[in-house]
């Protein structure tokens, strides 16, 4: 079956709110092998909303809509759905009690215009919304002689997501007998174009499983996806493809993680081997520490993080020699080494990792241009330094520095 996602809200078009709903719904539908071929965003305009519904029902079996279930006159999503299925809007006592109870919980009077939230297309399945006043609904019927399903969900993610998980997905599962399962392979030290070229023959011949590359800051991720009657069968189908990719890219450069994050593997190694770590950051400004402490239990090995942005901080906090800074500059291999060593000694850890660079947009020179970053790992008396020359916006350069630092820690531990 094919699905179209229709998200309603002028705030989405203006960029005031990021449309996370479409992403969330797409991921959930992929898990039950329902394909999404179109995502549409439309503002709070009745004429345009009706037009989008018409287009969506022409090209999809299922239309999932978020937003437009509120109490105001421009919240017409339910009315439009009823119109397309050729049914009347009818009063629902359960929804009336739901809204009434919600306002009682808020200790507020029931506004008259909230009565709009008690009417639904006749014959629809009403979904109780425990996190807001707007109940959702599912409508199944025929449009122009073809079986269609319309799903209306509230716009706020905290309301939409539980309803999608607990009500919509279980309902839609009956229409899909297949399972979709995917694994993410991280590839480091090889650019996106070069990486794709290395496996182009596999991509051109792919059917099931499929291989989809996409670049992220400092890495390339390949998602390997299989569709079969069970997750176990999907895993069996993915295994030889995954092994072939790792063989071509090299074990040092390619590995599988659940989320596609470099720190998945790095934190697991640190905790499994009980290797303690401290971080000294200049240009990355705390990104490495932040990504490490996202993992439960990391306090076992992560001891301290230092953001030593100025030269004075590097000297006083990390014991970087003044002479080193004067001779080589803050952005140098020598300073990166002393920062990593200083962090490890001050925190008493096995590993010290550092970043120092020019994130821009200003401050670069011909000798040291914007995007130049040095990353260093001090471990067991040895130093591993990586010189990066990145392009892009300030935040992109910082993200790449943090990713490279976490990746260098992994390589040092595994070797």
What CATH architecture label of the largest domain applies?
A: 3-Layer(aba) Sandwich
Task: Tell me the name of the CATH class of the largest domain.
Answer: Alpha Beta
Please count the helical segments.
Answer: 15
Q: What is the strand content?
A: 25-35%
Overall 3D form = elongated
Mean pLDDT over the residues? 94
Distance separating the two termini: 48 Å
Pfam families: CinA, CinA_KH, MoCF_biosynth
Domain MoaB/Mog: 4-175
Family: Belongs to the CinA family.
Protein name: Putative competence-damage inducible protein
Kindly describe this structure.
The protein is an alpha/beta fold and 415 residues long. The protein has 3 domains: 174 residues, MoaB/Mog-like domain (Molybdenum Cofactor Biosythetic Enzyme, Chain A); 79 residues, Alpha-Beta Plaits, CATH 3.30.70; 153 residues, Maf protein, CATH 3.90.950.20. Helices cover 41% and strands 26% of the residues. The protein has 15 helices and 17 strands. The strands form 4 sheets. Strands 2-1-3-8-7-6 form a 6-stranded mixed β-sheet, sandwiched between helices. The chain has a 5-stranded mixed β-sheet with strand order 14-13-15-16-17, with helices on both faces. Helix 2 runs parallel beside helix 6, helix 3 crosses helix 4 and helix 10 runs parallel beside helix 15. The model has no long low-confidence stretch (mean pLDDT 94). This is Putative competence-damage inducible protein. It comes from Sedimentibacter hydroxybenzoicus DSM 7310. Belongs to the CinA family.
Walk me through the topology:
Elements: E1 2-8, H1 10-13, H2 20-31, E2 35-42, H3 46-59, E3 62-66, H4 77-85, E4 89-91, H5 93-106, E5 119-121, E6 125-127, E7 136-143, E8 146-153, H6 157-172, E9 179-187, H7 192-198, H8 200-205, E10 210-216, E11 219-228, H9 231-249, E12 254-257, H10 262-273, E13 277-281, H11 287-292, E14 302-307, H12 311-318, H13 322-328, H14 333-347, E15 351-357, E16 372-379, E17 382-389, H15 394-414
Parallel strand pairs: 1-2, 1-3, 3-8, 13-14, 13-15
Antiparallel strand pairs: 4-5, 6-7, 7-8, 9-11, 9-12, 10-11, 15-16, 16-17
Helix pairs in contact: 2-6, 3-4, 10-15
